[in-house]
From TrEMBL:
Residues 15-260 form the Aspartate/glutamate/uridylate kinase domain. Its EC number is 2.7.2.11, 1.2.1.41. NCBIfam families: P5CS, PRK00197.1, proA, proB. This is Delta-1-pyrroline-5-carboxylate synthase. Pathway: Amino-acid biosynthesis; L-proline biosynthesis; L-glutamate 5-semialdehyde from L-glutamate: step 1/2; Amino-acid biosynthesis; L-proline biosynthesis; L-glutamate 5-semialdehyde from L-glutamate: step 2/2. InterPro entries: Aldehyde_DH_dom (IPR015590), Asp/Glu/Uridylate_kinase (IPR001048), G-glutamylP_reductase_CS (IPR020593), G5K_ProBA (IPR041744), Glu_5kinase/COase_Synthase (IPR005715), Glutamate_5-kinase_CS (IPR019797), GPR_dom (IPR000965), P5_carboxy_syn (IPR005766). It comes from Arabidopsis thaliana x Arabidopsis arenosa. Keywords: Amino-acid biosynthesis, ATP-binding, Kinase, Multifunctional enzyme, NADP, Nucleotide-binding, Oxidoreductase, Proline biosynthesis, Transferase. The keyword Hydrolase does not apply. GO terms for molecular function: ATP binding; glutamate 5-kinase activity; glutamate-5-semialdehyde dehydrogenase activity. It catalyses: L-glutamate + ATP = L-glutamyl 5-phosphate + ADP; L-glutamate 5-semialdehyde + phosphate + NADP(+) = L-glutamyl 5-phosphate + NADPH + H(+). In the N-terminal section; belongs to the glutamate 5-kinase family. In the C-terminal section; belongs to the gamma-glutamyl phosphate reductase family.
Amino acid sequence: MTEIDRSRAFAKDVKRIVVKVGTAVVTGKGGRLALGRLGAICEQLAELNSDGFEVILVSSGAVGLGRQRLRYRQLVNSSFADLQKPQMELDGKACAGVGQSSLMAYYETMFDQLDVTVAQMLVTDSSFRDKDFRKQLSETVKAMLRMRVIPVFNENDAISTRRAPYKDSTGIFWDNDSLAALLSLELKADLLILLSDVEGLYTGPPSDSTSKLIHTFIKEKHQDEITFGEKSKLGRGGMTAKVKAAVNAAYGGVPVIITSGYAAENISKVLRGLRVGTLFHQDAHLWAPVVDTTSRDMAVAARESSRKLQALSSEDRKQILLDIANALEANEKTIKAENDLDVAAAQEAGYEESLVARLVMKPGKISSLAASVRQLAEMEDPIGRVLKKTQVADDLILEKTSSPIGVLLIVFESRPDALVQIASLAIRSGNGLLLKGGKEARRSNAILHKVITDAIPKTVGGKLIGLVTSREEIPDLLKLDDVIDLVIPRGSNKLVSQIKNSTKIPVLGHADGICHVYVDKSCKLDMAKRIVSDAKLDYPAACNAMETLLVHKDLEQNGFLNDLIYVLQTKGVTLYGGPRASAKLNIPETKSFHHEYSSKACTVEIVEDVYGAIDHIHQHGSAHTDCIVTEDSEVAEIFLRQVDSAAVFHNASTRFSDGFRFGLGAEVGISTSRIHARGPVGVEGLLTTRWIMRGKGQVVDGDNGIVYTHKDLPVLQRTEAVENEI
């Protein structure tokens, strides 16, 4: 279920909320109060209260807390001889009476610190049989809520007429889960949140690795499929009771979320419509998928579809790309309309100018994207190419062939056009794909994904390319090292670092785009002006835009540096200087050379010579793209050989560091890694190799009777028959 679906669940304004905390959440080891966990929940409820929500709390934990206190008292009052005897089971009702006062004392103390007033509300099952009681209860609670008081409900087990209130499950309500459901209906709440010690409802015991979290409970589907594990030793409800209570409330018209009380800010996440826990809703069967699609399901489906894609002929794969290009152009108006809504929302939200710039799909962008897809389609089919052919022995031939990597997970920010480039590259290279774009491009990504997947034939299936819509799914995806083969993050340094630190899956990409242009003393003035201006201003938000201008010291002395600075300043570029440049040019000194502006700003510094430029780049650069402007071929060769970056240019703008401009058709990203692929990553970077051996019954048999020749054979052009066989 997506975040959009969650927002449907809370279509009406949520005002009155019932929150139930279970014993496992309230207490920790030894039955003592879990002070930190409970305090965090109280802070969330106090914040909701101050924001105008009407909050009703139903709290378990009194029996467990009372049992812990009475056991301690029993121990203190016992002699050594008493302790040798079997200990008598404590009376549950006595435990409830003792524990209730302790529990309420904690709530009063904590909420008082948060400037919130609470009221204790003890009820019994028999009370609800009285209509006058129910009417009075409703009036009293409403009066409290008007005064911003939080009522704290608990079943009054101490005076319950049940013979064993902690075991008996009959009556109007039978535990605090069912009490919470009853109160949500009785008091006409807009939402019920049941906090547990697990993330939500699973298909089996949460401890079982094969169990899956159910994001949306559909009664018709799940009621006969769930296997419940052993009930928690704490409290008396357990997940069985929670599900029963949730179903009763949901089908009575109150949406319910079962989620973890251990996770920070889960209550506020629920109210923001994020996908946490398990949702119960009376209309869930109408707008939730019949089958819950988990992160693993998406990855497995992408792999299965990729194998179907690889089984097609080269012409059929080419036709898919041509169909996608046509579909993009046919839907240009719709795509532009959705993109305009994203841009307007980003501007209204106050996003940085550089982010909004990356978000905008300018006029002609769709045509440009369609052209790049067609260029990919016309390229030689990269799948199954024979890279090396060896005669291992007589009639035993070994081939090294190109092969798709498998399933790719691409996480990117802002730029919706990246989705088209990545998807087309994945199709050309025969890979399955999972995409997670930035929330600011949600509408653009959704329409582009639909246009592309609708153009994929049913023989392959639209699940070849999965669109991840919730940020909360990323941690789950990063754990799937058995079904996802490569992660490529495209975005900020923070994003890339977080992903690298959160997964065992290989990660390909770059964190920063600190690109340099070094203008040598032997440059041509007009050429240097053009290259510097283009590198900074052609697209300032791009990762291959110039962020630092390095200038030979002689150019400051002959006045050429001033000409360069003038060109940039007249075009609106804000300049920051290194220690030498800031003093000479009277501009603010930069706080750090390692800074990616992604806007009309850059750093300027003066260096001694080409070696000083190389040292500066190695110390402060990001090994992305660096350029030298010079007419001295010897100096140029020194720069080209010694600068250790993914792309190094002579007399050419850094903006050429791009998959399309390199003739790769498109790029999935730019890698500064030194393993597998480096620089703009096109189709070739999304391929690996595998070995094909053809023999005539040979066996090893201890290498007896076989003569190894290891002879290199010429690689012939593939025939269609061999391609189809692969």
